[in-house]
Design goal:
NADH Oxidase; 3-stranded antiparallel sheet; 4 strands; 33% helix; alpha+beta; 179 residues; 6 helices; homodimer
Chain lengths: 179, 179
């Protein structure tokens, strides 16, 4: 699948997934795509855990409350270590966001759907920490996001309403009309 | 160019660029790729300015000190508005990082090279603010990054040293050996 086509058709899929399993080789390729993203000063602050064990997925979904993406047969959990790249500069958020975007595109390219779930697990109820504990993640890392992966059981539509190009992008000056 | 091939060959190019111009249609496609990235609660906090006007580029490079990517005939400036998606939750950094990663892949797919320059302009000398002023960007937006775009005049090599897969990614548990 070509890059631009994938970028322009990718969407946040919130429907149910079929029971079809995601082969390990596909999961590995998706993880590798995440790790291939750049990171500030190459600090590689992002780590990843793919979960396809049914029992473990069930345990995780006992803390992901309310559940989202729970029909997927695999998820990828995104871990970050908030270390400084230099002095007081930390790019960990940029690092994991770029890794997530790479993975979302790889997921789409391999014929699956997904959705970036972050706010759902990083709120005051600290679901991410509960998930991290179930996965044995040490306290100096945060589990900030998870991506369900699977074949969609429902129609995939890019329904998100986006502002017009001219409201968000310009040439040679802020809000300049030239094109 | 296919998604996975692009993800795995993309690299931070820090060499010089040829004098070949980047056509407007390519710049527009790259901007569209950036805007197609997801954003937290669809707040679309990222805006973009492509600069290909020679005089304006020269003015910008008088404040980008020391210069980086200065031989490129076009750059894209990334703007963010740090508004909350809900309550006190702001995803603006994730939003622009995902947009940047999309653009880096689109740039590569179209046959160009680039590099994510962020720390260089967001340090204490506030180069980003000086660039923003030259572009007429209002004070409630930050210019956090720029991407030079052009055909590479030097050999492109992915020389970055990355940790092994097994040091950063696992299946069904932190640092679990299973594969």
């Amino acid at each position: 699948m070509d890059v631009l086509g994938t970028i322009f058709t990718r969407t946040s899929y919130r429907g149910t997934y079929t029971e079809e399993k995601v082969p390990r080789e596909h999961l590995k390729t998706i993880l590798e795509a995440g790790l291939a993203a750049p990171s500030g000063c190459n600090k590689q602050t992002t780590s990843l855990i793919a979960v396809d064990d049914e029992k473990l997925l069930k345990s995780l979904y006992q803390v992901i409350d309310p559940p989202v993406g729970e029909t997927a047969s695999a998820i990828i959990c995104v871990l970050t270590k908030r270390i400084n790249a230099y002095r007081d500069k930390c790019y960990a958020t940029q690092d994991y966001a770029a890794a997530i975007e790479n993975m979302l595109l790889a997921i789409k390219a391999l014929g699956y759907e997904s959705c970036w779930y972050e706010g759902h697990i990083t709120d005051e109820d600290a679901i991410g920490r509960k998930m991290a504990d179930l996965l044995g993640v040490p306290g100096d890392m945060e589990l900030v996001c998870f991506l369900p992966i699977g074949k969609p059981a429902e129609k995939v539509e890019r329904t998100v309403k986006k502002k017009e190009f001219s409201e968000r992008a310009w040439f040679n000056g802020y809000q300049r009309r030239e094109e």
